[in-house]
Specification:
By secondary structure, this protein is mainly alpha-helical. The chain has 3 domains: 2-12 and 23-86 and 618-776, Rossmann fold (3-Layer(aba) Sandwich); 101-189 and 357-613, no CATH class; 213-222 and 229-352. The chain has helices spanning 2-9, 40-44, 104-114, 123-160, 164-169, 190-197, 199-220, 231-236, 248-278, 285-311, 325-346, 361-389, 401-429, 445-452, 454-486, 494-507, 513-538, 542-545, 551-584, 586-599, 615-633, 644-655, 658-661, 673-680, 682-685, 687-696, 757-769; strands at 27-32, 49-54, 59-63, 81-86, 636-642, 664-669, 699-703. It is globular and about 95 Å long. The two termini are 31 Å apart.
Length: 809
Amino acid sequence: MERVTAARTAQKDPDKPEKSGQAEPIALELLVHGVGGTTPEEMLGDPRTVRVSGDGTAAVYRRTDDVDAESRPADYRDRPVPEAYVWCNLTSGNGSRALWLLLLPFMVVNLAHWMRPTARRAKRAVRTYGLLVRLVALTLTVLLVAAACEIAIDLTAWQCAGTAACVDDHSWLGFLAPESAGGGGWWSQPGRRLALAALLPAALTGLLWFLSHRTWSAYESQQPLPHQPDPEETARNALGKPGFWYGRRLVARLRAAHTAAGLLTVAAAVGTSAARYDRRPGGPALLDVLGWALDSALVLAGAFVVWVVCRRGRSENRLDRSLDRTLVRWLPLAALALLVLAVLYAGWSRPGWTSTGRLPGNTTFGGITLVQGVLVLALAVVAARIFRGSPDARTAIRGLGGPAVAMLACALGGVMSGGGSQRVADWLDGSGSPGAGGSIDGPPALLTWQASVIPPLLVVVAVLCGWLAVRTAQKVRRELAQVRLDYPKERQDTTRTRRIAGTRAGAALTDRAPQIVGVTSAATLLLGAAALVGAWASGKVPGEAAKSAPAFVEGAAETAQAMGSWLIGLGFILFVTWGRRAYRDPSARRTIGILWDVGTFWPRAAHPFAPPCYAERAVPDLTWRMHTWTRATGGRLVISGHSQGSVLAAAAAWQLLPSVRKRVALLTYGSPLERLYGRWFPAHFGPAALSSLHREVDCWRNLHRPTDPIGGPVRLHGECGPQVDRDALKDPLAYGRTEAHPLPAPILGHGDYQADPAFAEERARLLARLRPAVPGPRPRRAGAGAVDPEATESPAGPGGPGGPPDTAG
């Protein structure tokens, strides 16, 4: 710690003029790793490292010998001081985070929000796009809670506990059994059974609220670097706006609305069942009135929740620390009060009430499916309109990436809800088959229809895989000739050449992802619509509905039903077992962490129960580090990002003050900035956004390989200044054995870019290009009251050299 303190006190004040002959300011290389994570020892190439800033979740490390580098600038005249920012624990830390796998549909629909096409003059369409995605996200919450209600209330409390054969197989349900099933206790009445079973979905809703609140406090509550927005710069890209990485107000508002929606769903499942019984001819008038009053209150509360979701989107132009405290506090409590009233109403004594058949889940799940389909189609119309205003050939699925991904999120929610219901029904029915001679009727027919369309969907996916195999084989043949051209003086080895060509062809499959997602999403939408029509038209499962059809049709329907039920149950089991394995196995947990690295980069703008956004911690960390170091030392800085680390580096550079940004160089390698983010998130990483970043940083170089399945060129040159992309690096570095490579050189693909001599060349070029002097303040712009952000903050902050900027904003 003494060396760290000495290094910090030795940092010079950039406001003091440099004396003649004084050493050139020190240079810093800030390394940011990519997906999967690593250790500071591996990043810095030294087993002795010291944490200089941060905590056990995310921190900056240096080699032990470099801790006091600022006090010895002469020792670093020809080389930069390496620092490593390690953020892997944000996504793949302890085992409990593996349970985030069950939140996968919420994460996917949140991605759809950020896949909006680039919009220049379509503000109303942009707001409509965000509104539709938030509504789709709300239906997913209702779907998940409705599935929990189906399992606990319908299958367990209504069907199994009310059937003698099922109670005999599950003695733990004996206290709920009616007299006809050998029971007759206080809980034997159907309404009281439903009221007790409502605890499970209500607890699930409370758990989601708790996880969302806790993860926000742990990950996303970090204060970004306060600065005034530059009207010209932030107009080009929202990632540079002061409030982009701080969505406290919206997340709290959506969390309250989704929590209320979940509780109201449980209240409706319990209360409407009892109200339906009370509306029978000759029923008690008082209970009938109470039932209508409860239903009306639930409808009004549901409409208010929808209004809350529609009313406000993200606020990014300023750091919004305020909260809608009344709404956030009282909306979930009001929904909880309605749930308590529904439970009390359902628990009223109704001696003549018996549970037979299914609860009306077909209508519930059918309504959710219909609303989701309509919202996705509306989202596609809005996205197409936005895309026509600013078309870009590189945009995935011609601007329809967001609607396609939203459709896949709904499909994932259907697999999880349907698979859970199917497996619980099979478990409760023991050796029987629900709905086909078993002791219970099983889940609603719509869930069986949805399971039955999975085999046709798999046929579509198999055709896609066959098409990809053909295109890959064609690509391999083309690459065979290219490999020979890339290594013209080498003695050709057929096996070696084919391996290199195969790696290149496999890496190119990433560029086929838009076709795969688009076709799969369209097929899912059409097959889901067919399942909805079939369930509503027949009211029966596919096998029963096809009894009057020709024999081959009936056989196909029964086969699809059996296979679909098995597959959807298998999908649910895979979700659960993978999460359980990841809880215990660090290697599996790291695999899931890679999934979160890609999927949770974006803030929770659509679904508050999605896994937390690690970038709301990582981007402020990097921004504060670059800002304070450059202001305190007057030195040069290269931020060096690999893979997902390059995305974090770019996002952090956008958040810097213009004077600091002009003294920062960007080195990216294996970067998905254009290949993945630019195509799928064009509004934020499209050509206009990347071009503005190229102009605003001092210099930028990008390294890529043809064997890399993730990274690629950023395709910026010409009007932006010097070309960003270096020519594609050779991989492997040597075709055969040479004096420099006596053993066969490996095909590196996405990793080990530092092993290529081009990496050191580009780093040295960037450090040589950076200007050591601090640029002067820009002149104040005329008109419209434009504010120079540097006029409001001292170079070193109010705390003196190295002090943070004024956090009062």
